[in-house]
Write a structure and sequence with these properties.
The complex is a heterodimer of chains A (425) and B (158).
Chain A lengths: L10 H6 L15 E2 L10 H14 L9 H21 L7 E4 L2 H14 L11 E5 L8 H10 L2 E5 L12 H4 L4 E7 L11 H10 L3 E5 L22 E5 L10 E5 L1 H6 L10 E5 L2 E4 L13 H17 L1 H19 L5 E3 L11 E6 L4 H10 L2 E2 L1 E3 L4 H6 L5 E5 L6 H17 L4
Parallel strand pairs in A: 1-13, 3-4, 3-5, 5-6, 6-7
Antiparallel strand pairs in A: 2-8, 7-8, 9-10, 11-12, 12-15, 14-15
Helix pairs in contact in A: 2-9, 3-9, 4-5, 10-13, 11-13
Chain B lengths: L1 H12 L2 H8 L12 E6 L6 E9 L5 E10 L2 H14 L4 H15 L9 H4 L12 H26 L1
Antiparallel strand pairs in B: 1-2, 2-3
The chains are: A alpha/beta (425), B alpha+beta (158).
Chain lengths: 425, 158
């Protein structure tokens, strides 16, 4: 195996934790999974924890007056503790379970429309997002501003795929109520300056909402460790990209903000007292968790974040950087291949989107697939970012803690094969 | 051995006819006259086509022209080219029958044996039907043509 500084020292052991990596594909080819920014694979401990919960502890939470109910409730709330520790959240009550990151963002956007007082978004207010967002951090804000008469504005991108902050003083003004942006771009790989933008937004009293869907899997996050001026007010991520299951996402919010926002969905669990004339609501976090929550999914997420903690987020970050750097070197050997986004692998996350001259991304992905290499092709739910660079779609490889240099070699070899298959160059 | 098996799958998908149409698409470009223009997209990948239909002849029941501007993968581009070449000059009824035949082929999960008499170069897409993710690519412009034709016929009726 290639020796790369930063690579996880026990990579082969880590890989053994992920049973799916052992399977083979059509024709007996080994799986080369380079689509982790889409969804990550799951370690055995997550699978086993979920099975164990269903086999031995299954009951509804917070309402069953029996032993199983107590066990299920404890497991669910322990998962909340684990998430809080993973984020370095100042308080566990600030962690709200949602279905996914999209639901978390929609929760924030909707409750801001319904809020009373200072937080309420209305006519004349400005919401600022960016051109590199996933659709899930664009569309909820479009809906919010269209419904309330507020204005949606956005940061553009530089040719290098960085946020263009040159007009930050025009975008972030006294009228700006919300500034929202992704920590790490799912398409360009760009890591954005969270502290700098947050500080500027806080100067005008705007709320800062950070989409950490791509950041949480690969960067150490310590909310409590950030100076208050630099700390976002709300942050979301999804479980399935952090080696957890689908169906579970997280909204973290500063206590004062969450307490000021009205409920999102109404139902069981989120109430204090219900009368036909009106109801009062539970405190956070339960105020935002109407109905039976995704219990086993939360338990699985807890196991996933504990697993990542054992490997160490610093080590995972270093591994991603090492693999990204190695992939950059390999991709540079493929004629006609252009990488989109920042040219310096050291300042990127583990997702690399590229174009291959003369071959459409769909066709690239198809040929790679028959070689056992799984990548994503399309607009990656980031159509505006693609439009910014004048491309309709791209091919994206994305690595994770189980990715090996040999898998990158397989990708590069398959890309050369793709060129020869389509007779380009 | 294993490489060979998967290579065969790939060749079943990317028939020479498909690659030929991809590199040299027939009837490409948007032309006048036309009665209806539609824009269809494949939201999962962003492939798009702008397509115009011109009906003429006796009672306006002949497909005089199908012109288009398409962005997309080899399958969607080739499918558009094959379709335009097949349908131009046919009566609307014959064209709709060909459309149904092609749809049946694509939705057959690889079990339908295509009729070369009807589909001509379109039979090359039989292999695509075995790749569920690519069926939508092949059908994008066919759906656009049907939509544009329906609008044209509606316009004639009103």
């Amino acid at each position: 195996m290639v020796e790369l500084p930063g690579l996880l020292p026990e990579l082969e052991v880590v890989r053994k934790d992920f049973p799916i990596l052992e399977r083979s594909l059509a024709g007996g080819l080994p799986l080369v999974y380079l689509d982790s920014a889409n969804t990550s694979q799951k370690p055995q401990i997550v699978i086993d924890t979920m099975v164990d919960h269903l086999e031995r502890h299954n009951a509804n939470v917070a309402r069953a007056m029996h032993q199983l109910g107590a066990e299920a409730s404890a497991a669910f709330e322990e998962a909340r503790d684990t998430v809080a520790a993973f984020l370095g959240a100042p308080s566990r009550d600030e962690v709200i379970f949602t279905k996914n990151a999209s639901e978390a963002l929609n929760l924030v956007a909707n409750t801001l429309a319904w809020a009373k007082g200072d937080r309420k978004i209305g006519e004349g207010d400005v919401v600022v997002t960016t051109e590199m967002e996933h659709h899930s951090n664009i569309v909820p804000w479009q809906l919010l501003t269209e419904r309330t008469g507020a204005t949606l504005r956005w940061f553009g991108l530089t040719d290098d795929g960085l946020l263009d902050l040159s007009n930050i003083d025009e975008l972030i003004t006294e009228r700006t109520k919300v500034v929202t942006f992704t920590w790490v771009s799912n398409m360009l790989g760009t890591i954005n300056p969270v502290a700098e933008i947050t500080r500027r937004a806080h100067e005008v009293g705007a709320l800062v909402v950070v989409d950490a869907s791509q950041a949480a899997p690969q960067l150490p996050i310590d909310l409590a460790g950030m100076p208050e001026t630099d700390r976002p007010d709300l942050l979301v991520f999804t479980g399935h990209k952090t080696v957890g299951p689908t169906g579970i996402g997280v909204l973290w919010g500063r206590r004062e903000v969450l307490e000021a926002l009205p409920p999102f969905l109404g139902g069981g669990e989120m109430i204090e007292t219900v009368r036909m004339e009106g109801s009062t609501y539970a405190g956070i976090p339960h105020k935002f968790e109407a109905g039976t929550p995704p219990i086993v999914e939360a338990v699985g997420l807890g196991a996933a974040l504990t697993y990542l903690g054992h490997v160490g987020m610093e080590h995972i970050h270093a591994h991603e950087r090492a693999i990204t750097g190695y992939a950059f070197e390999g991709l540079a050997t493929v004629p006609g291949l252009t990488v989109l986004g920042p040219g310096d692998p050291a300042v990127r996350g583990g997702a690399i989107s590229f174009e291959l001259e003369g071959v459409h991304p769909h066709d690239v992905a198809q040929v790679l697939d028959v070689r056992g290499v799984a990548v994503r092709a399309g607009h990656h739910c980031a159509r505006p970012a693609h439009a910014r660079f004048g491309v309709q779609s791209s091919t994206r490889m994305s690595s994770y803690l189980y990715t090996t240099p040999a898998e990158i070699d397989a990708l590069i070899e398959a890309l050369h094969y793709t060129r020869s298959y389509f007779k380009v160059g | 051995m294993s490489q060979q098996a998967t290579g065969q799958d790939l060749d079943a998908l990317y028939q020479e006819i498909i690659l030929d149409h991809y590199k040299n698409p027939l009837h490409a470009g948007l032309r006048e006259p036309f009665e209806a223009e539609v824009h269809h997209v494949n939201p999962t990948c962003g492939d798009e086509v702008t397509l115009r239909v011109h009906l003429g002849g006796p009672e306006g029941r002949t497909v005089e022209d199908v012109s288009y501007d398409a962005l997309g993968c080899s399958i969607s581009q080739a499918s558009t080219s094959v379709m335009a070449d097949l349908l131009i000059g046919k009566t609307v009824d014959d064209a709709l029958a060909i459309h149904t035949e092609f749809l049946t082929l694509m939705q057959g999960k690889g079990t339908v044996v295509p009729d070369e008499e009807v589909l001509e170069d379109g039979i090359a897409f039989a292999g695509v039907a075995k790749f569920p993710a690519r069926v939508k690519c092949a059908l994008l412009s066919w759906m656009a043509w049907k939509d544009a034709t329906a609008r044209t016929l509606e316009g004639q009726a009103s």
